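From the thread on structure requests for the teaching lab: each student submitted one protein with a one-line request. Submission from student K.M.:

"Model DUF488 domain-containing protein from Natronococcus amylolyticus DSM 10524, tokens only."
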Amino acid sequence: MADGTLADTYVAAIQHDLAELPDGTTRVGVVRKPAPWFHAAVDENVPELGPPADLLEAVRTVEDELKMQGLCGEGAHNAAWDRTDFDERYRTYLEESPEAQAALEDLLGRLADGESLALVCYENTEKKRCHRTILREQLESAAAD
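Reply posted by the TA:
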């Protein structure tokens, strides 16, 4: 990356002033269908970089089943990721969706122009796996090429 920095955080960290972001960082939501209050915590939202609806639904279905079997919320969420091949399916979406590709190119251009960006969604990655970790890896890898 030329001059811009890339970070990621979750919305509650921003709301409670726990996110440590460099001054001037643009907070970019990467949520498919944000709750109305989400927009107050971010500067913009790029729904094309949120996981596709069918993948989110698959994870929710498995997560609900696992909770019914007694797993805690975080454990069910993380196990559902594995059972639905979330990582691979989300990476495939990023590579094959023209809308996601255009959004990635836009963010890469902004980073190359020196803008600092923070990817934002709902999950606290200290407890739950999150697509923004994959998204950040993809952006960092593309920027290094």
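TA comment: The mean pLDDT is 92. Helices lie at 11-15, 53-68, 73-83, 86-96, 98-112, 131-144.
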